[in-house]
Design brief:
Blueprint (H helix, E strand, L loop, with lengths): L2 H9 L6 H12 L7 H12 L6 H11 L15 H8 L5 H6 L5 H14 L4 E2 L6 E2 L5 E3 L6 E4 L8 E5 L17 H6 L5 E10 L1 H10 L8 E7 L2 E7 L8 H14 L2 E7 L6 E3 L9 E3 H7 L5 E5 L7 H4 L13 H11 L3 E5 L10 H9 L4 E3 L2 H11 L3
Parallel strand pairs: 1-2, 2-3, 3-4, 4-5, 8-9, 8-12, 12-13, 13-14
Antiparallel strand pairs: 6-7, 10-11
Length: 390
């Protein structure tokens, strides 16, 4: 629709090229400018005119062509699709929210199979079909106490299953710590031992040996002193844990600095039959949790880090995982881990005042024998004290 505008500029002596005109079209395609004539004017002048001496000539030609027009022709109805989806979302009252039925796991999965077989077109704002907005338990962008999120992004965090390929990122162990409080708290979990090659000068031994050797220097060396505590760290990533990335990255960095014997793995929401070391390759390079149980000794201290905020189905129901069809519930794997590593705690970045209102947190806390602590300096101190009892 702007070819005539380009030709009009050339007829008025404005020095602009076809290549510059294509740049303008690409900028419009990428929504660089808004839909007002003023925004378009600034974009067109920036992309089409390379010589300031041409500004006045461009202004006159532009004014002639768009005289009396307040917005670009054909763009008045260019409403972003996201706005339309949000407009379709129903605003439910407290009474309507309370009336929404929790289907239960088996009925929810069976109903989803029926909807997939029956649905033939897109829906928005309803309470039955897979769609956007509304109060249906299937789709995204709506309101329901439990459902299957298909596409879109998490908003209410009430989905018991997510149908999409999600990518998580690794925690950064090179974070510059803004405070030493975390490291100070972690130092309560210390048991020093001298290991490795004898490379450190033993001053007291050297003095004693020299004295016993009639004044001839007798150098004594000893292995360097290290924290001998062994830590197995399990880190929850993705979903609601995105709110706590900074805090968890700081903790991870502090652990890497504090513990010489540190092994770590990632999981999502609850531990199941596989864990992984790299979130980029979490689907191709996974570690069977059984291997972790057999690889490390009972002297390892087990630390879980996660908000424990999920559907209760993920903990107590086979197939309840939000991302895959797990053969055994998360509670079974948590029990196996805490049996193999009896010195275990769970660090929760969620405020402790919120814990009683989330069923999944209560379940995890019960499975850990009450050994859940907030991810605060005080909580870390209490958690490290618990791990130091043995």
């Amino acid at each position: 629709m702007l070819v005539d505008f380009f030709l009009h500029l050339r007829e008025r002596g404005v020095k602009t090229s076809l290549q510059e005109f294509l740049v303008l079209l690409e900028a419009l395609r990428r929504n660089v400018a808004g839909y007002s004539i003023d925004d378009f004017y600034l974009l067109a002048r920036t992309t089409l005119i390379k010589d300031e001496a041409q500004f006045d000539r461009f202004d006159r030609a532009f004014g002639e062509y768009f005289k009396g027009i307040e917005s670009l022709p054909g763009m008045e109805t260019g409403i972003p699709e996201e706005w339309l989806r949000q407009a379709a979302k129903r605003l439910l009252s407290d009474e309507e929210r309370a009336a929404l039925e929790k289907l239960g796991w088996d009925k929810l999965m069976e109903t989803l199979k029926q909807r997939l077989a029956e649905q033939k077109e897109r829906h928005a704002g309803g309470n039955k079909w897979i769609g956007t907005g509304g109060s249906s338990p299937f789709g995204h962008g709506g309101t329901h106490p439990e459902g299957v999120r298909i596409g879109g992004r998490s908003e209410n965090r009430s989905a018991v299953k997510v149908w999409e390929k999600r990518e998580f990122r690794n925690l950064d162990d090179s974070v510059e710590l803004g405070t030493r409080n975390i490291q100070v708290a972690l130092r309560r979990l210390r048991r020093f031992a001298r290991e490795g090659a004898a490379e450190e000068l033993d001053l007291d031994g050297t003095i004693d040996g020299t004295a016993r050797n009639a004044g001839w220097l007798d150098l004594k060396l000893r292995p360097e002193r290290h924290n001998a505590v062994k830590v197995l760290l399990f880190l929850d990533v993705g979903g609601s844990m995105d709110d706590h990335i900074s805090t968890c990255a700081t903790l991870f960095s502090a652990c890497r600095n504090e513990f010489k014997h540190l092994e770590y793995y990632y999981f999502h929401n609850c531990v199941y039959e596989h864990v992984w070391r790299d979130n980029v390759r979490r689907r191709t390079e996974r570690t069977p949790t059984v291997d972790v149980l057999h690889r490390y000794g009972r002297d390892y201290k087990l630390i879980f880090v996660g908000d424990a905020t999920m559907s209760p189905y993920e903990i107590v129901h086979p197939g309840g995982s939000v991302e895959h069809d797990n053969a055994e519930p998360g509670a079974v794997w948590l029990a196996r881990l805490t049996d193999a590593f009896p010195h275990a705690v769970w660090l929760n970045p969620e405020p402790e005042a919120h814990w009683p209102y989330r069923e999944s947190i209560s379940l995890i806390r019960q499975l850990l024998g009450g050994r859940m602590f907030p991810l605060t300096v005080d909580g870390l101190t209490r958690g490290m004290r618990e791990l130091s009892k043995a």
